[in-house]
Structures are given as structure tokens and as C-alpha cells.
Specification:
globular; six-stranded mixed sheet; alpha/beta; UDP-N-acetylmuramoyl-L-alanine:D-glutamate ligase; eight-stranded mixed sheet; magnesium; Protein-Tyrosine Phosphatase, Chain A
Length: 443
Amino acid sequence: MSKSLASDSIAPRSLSEWLHYLETLHPVGIDMGLERVSAVAKRMGLLSRPVAKQVITVAGTNGKGSTLAMMDAVARAHGLQVGTYTSPHLLRYNERVTINGQQADDQQLVAGFSHVEAARLQSPEISLTYFEAGTLCALWCLANEALDIALLEVGLGGRLDAINIIDADIGIVTTIAQDHANFLGNDIAQIGREKAGIFRPLRPAVLGSLLLPSSVAAAAEAISAPVYCLGGAFSHSDEPQATEAQPGARLNQWCWRGLTREGGEVSLTSLPDPGLPIDNAATALQALSLTGLALDEDACRHAFHTVQLPGRMQWIGQWCLDVGHNPHAANYVAERLSQVPDGGRQWALIGMLNDKDVEGVIRALLPRITDWVCVSLDGERGHSATELAARITSLGGHVHGCANSPEKGMQMIAKQLSPADRVLVTGSFFTVAALLEETLPQA
């Protein structure tokens, strides 16, 4: 690049201009590997100083966002200074970086991207993907705060994800299932090994599911990382109730048992249901306990009572919005959805990307859905509504109609919505994000 072009590339830009520019820098959107991003991080000084006093990295197919959100809430309830990096975002890019619960402002992110670009353009110039540049920007923002804990969410995989340039003090793997097959393949054991690539020698590895392939624990043990497994080192159970609950009813309190960093036993009781997977809540507590934090019951109760994660079983009147886009996530949604309401219908407004297991998602939701509305998503990865409808019909579902956008699908349902109806919006972050910006009609 000529000197003048390099100067132009770091000219003042708004956040939206930076994001548009970053989309043009690399020939492909996903280019897994650490060599390029590590080189730029080194130039920025990000590898020569800690991002925070302690770093927890979260990998997994599902449950990363909810585990991280609950760790954030619990740690801040204990008075700690906490920064987070997550992806993707729903409405604003700023959601990806938070400091003590507040989204980074445009000025912080613009400064971060300017530092990334200046380092990238040093000789020899290094090409970065949009995600790699965003990760470096986020790490720069976090490193410039006096943080007790930085919570980092892996974007894709683990071993070769840009986040993995940072050595985590504690690594978490939440769940393992098939997703992103184009990049990670369909071998569950191999996917587990890729996710376990975030673990570090002699540093705790927290396993947050009873159904993880053995390759995850094996990868940790191979580098002498202490393993803390759900159902072993830590567990959760329903709070005993004075009266017997109705069949199928969800108990609203639970107990947790786990270990401290020193190996002592610790337990918490009467914890409220956070509205997110309890496996992930238990995992969050175990990871924080391993930082040396003395968990306070009242602080934990407050955190679980107030934690929110947009787009995860988020109810807005009659509408439930969930970004689940693989069978594992869809099964969780189906379990949490109530039966078809008496005298009403349970709709699904679904839009998906074409690299997902569409039929697996549909099969998981079929028992709970009476009427489907299929919507097209923009871009080369977007499934067309008619393709989705054909899949649903072939599996025995009733397709009410198709629309060329989530907004049009919402309008289609609005014309038929009765007070007894419920609507699930699902299949993709893009589907949910589109409707979060709308005023959802209520009957």
C-alpha cells in the first residue's frame, strides 16, 4: 500500500464507516488461524500485558452467551470490575463490548479500530477479517480498563478462533453439537477437541454439560489442565419444596454445589430461576469460584433475579424471541415452550441460513408448533422462505404462508393473531434482530 493510501485508511471515520471499511479488508469473511491476528496483536502490545487480572474464555456450540451473561451479572453483583466481549450482536455493534454492564460507546470503538489499523499497516501489511479486527479492537478496549475479570466468548470453534491469542486463566466449554459444519466438520469428537483448544496447561477447564464427548476432557488432561465437570466437581438440583409441584411445573428455586480454587466445598441455596439454562448458571458459578471469588448467596440471588439476555427465550407480550439455530438449541426452546394454548395456535416465524441443520431444527420444534410462517433472509447464506416451507411440509408441518422478510412475516401473523395465540420467532440472529426493531403486534 502506498503511503498516501495508508494515510487515507486511518483517516477519521465514524463507527459505521469503520465497520463498512473492515468488511472490505480480507478476501473471505471467515479465515481461521492465529498467525495474522497474533502478529497484529503483538504490534499493539496486547500480548505483553494482561487484558485483565483474570480472563475467562467461553467456547461451545450453545450456551456461551448465557453462561457469560450470568458470570458478568454475578461478578458485578460482588462489586468486581468486569468487561465482556461477545458476538454476534443483535441491534448495535456496541453490544459486543461492555464495561461494567455498559456498552462501549462509539468513541471507544473508533479509537480501538484506529489502533488496530495503525498496527495492521506496519510493514509488512497484514490482512485481517472483520471478526479479527473486531476482536483486536475489543481486547484493546478491555485492556485499557482496570478490570478484575475479562469474559471472552469464542466466535467459532476454539483452537483457531481469534480470541485464542489470549491465554485464559479459566476455560469453559458449555456444549458440543454439530454447527458450522463447513468449518468444523461433523465429527463430534473432533469438534470437541477444537473447542477444547482454549484450555491452557495447569489452568482450570470447566465442562458445562453432562453430554460432552470424551475428547473434551481428554484434551484438558493431555495438557494437565485440572478438569471440573458438571455432575462431578459441581452440580445443581431443584430446591426442595414444602408442597409437591404440579406435574410438568418448573420449580422456581435451585441449589448449587461446587468447589473453591483451593478445593474446598461450597454450596448455595434458594437461587432464583434466571430464565436461562440452569446447567449454564451452575457452570458460571463454578468458573467464578475458581477465580478465588467467595460467592455470596444474596449477591448471587440478586444477579440471577436480574440477569437479562436479549433474544434468548425473550417474551414480549405474545411473542417469544430466541436466536436458536441448531437442533440442540431448538430442543431447549421446545422444552421451555408451553403446550399449544387452549383455543389458540402456537405460531413459528422462522428464517434460517443455508449452512444450518434446517431439518434438525424443524424436527425439534414440530411438536410445539401448529402454524409456520417462513421468511427469507438476505444475503448468499440466507435460505429462501419457499425452501424452508418445502422442508417443513415434507416433515408434516402446516405452513401458513411465506414472506420475503421477517417484517413481512410478522405482518402476516398479525392479521390472524388471536388473544389465545403465541408466536415463536427463531432460526437465526438475523431473524430475531429484525423483529426486535419492530413494535410487535398484540391481539
